[in-house]
Fold this sequence. Notes:
mainly alpha, 0% strand
Amino acid sequence: xxxTSRRLLLWGPRxxxxxxSLFIGIFALDxxxxxAPFFAALPDFLVHLIPSFVLLAVVGTSWRSEWxxxxxxxxxxxxxxxxxxxxxxxxMLVISxxxxxxxxLFMWSWHRRREGHAS
Length: 119
């Protein structure tokens, strides 16, 4: 594999995983839309950020063990699609789609790295 594509495959899932967690974190801003004062809404905001923190922890764990990121991101994509989307295809695509892509990239990266060590 060429050096550029090897780097892209190495860094792609990590960067996209961070971006997906930031994207999920944007939904936490909904805590401030209820008209409550800033300091009253802050605890709700922090609670809504928990999924983003979990995704960041998964990216951190997957930095060396890509298979963990692959399984967790794909598992979360399927879990959301089956339980939370509630028949809304658009919700499923917006949330599960990026999670599935990042999981697939982590699995591909892991497979390529294993393949490189075996030769």
